[in-house]
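Reading group handout, session on sequence-to-structure problems. Before we discuss, look at one worked example. The prompt was deliberately terse, the way you'd type it at a terminal:

> structure Phosphate ABC transporter substrate-binding protein

The input record follows.
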Amino acid sequence: MTVEAVAAVPTAQPRRASLPMYDFPELRDAHTLLWSALARRMGEAGLDGVPDLLTFDAEPAALWRAPDLFLSQTCGFPLVTSLGGMVKVVATPRYRAPGCNGSRHRGFIVVAADSGVQRLVELRGSRCVINGWDSNTGMNMLRAAVAPLAREGRFFGSVEVSGGHLASLRSVAEGAADVAAIDCVTFAHLSRHRANLAEGVRVLAVTAATPCLPLVTAAATDDDTIAILRAALQAVAASSDLAPIRADLLLDGFDLLPDRAYKVVSGLASQAAAIGYPDLA
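And the output record:
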């Protein structure tokens, strides 16, 4: 083979990777170091096209649907609704955070620290804020929790969208809303890094548990690539050198769950609808 022919051999173009679900500024360095370790291990395994850096500026929902998605973390609710056929689950993280049990997590239903509310039923007619209509912990789990208390399809006086768990927490702490449901891992991170804000609310109740936010890749990703991805994840989970990074991220490891594991997410929606509460209202 000539030099020219060798030079013409195509190389795999790097795809995109992101870890957007807990991407607080205080965790950016830890996420970057974690990805560097993952990318290095995949490169050593001979995998081409591994991105050197995480993508931080892409809209998460758009990247989840992109054909060049290498790895990202999504929410369990879009996984079982809008992302059907677009992604494959690579692994489910385990977190060391109150509210987590293995690779399952819960939503914390929070009210202001000085609120006199003691029971969920007392929130009837109150101002609710959610991070988004496609959120499992912020909307779907909350809907399931209050569904038995709803009357004629309504429970809250109003429902506003904040755009993120941090903004929802701030709304409750500052009195702009009465209640929100916050992902328990997010709450743990904010309790560590934004203690003054977290102390402005208290946990009134916890939701049912569902699997933690899954790591996903594009549906077209081949099985060999997924196997290398999973091996790299297990390697960084076991590395003593990366223990401080995992501690910063509250990361305990990764589980490989069967596809049916996330059916509990859509099951919560079905249960609420079955008792006359199909929409959070």
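Points for discussion. First: The first strand starts at residue 16 and ends at 17. Second: Confidence is low (pLDDT under 50) at residues 1-11.
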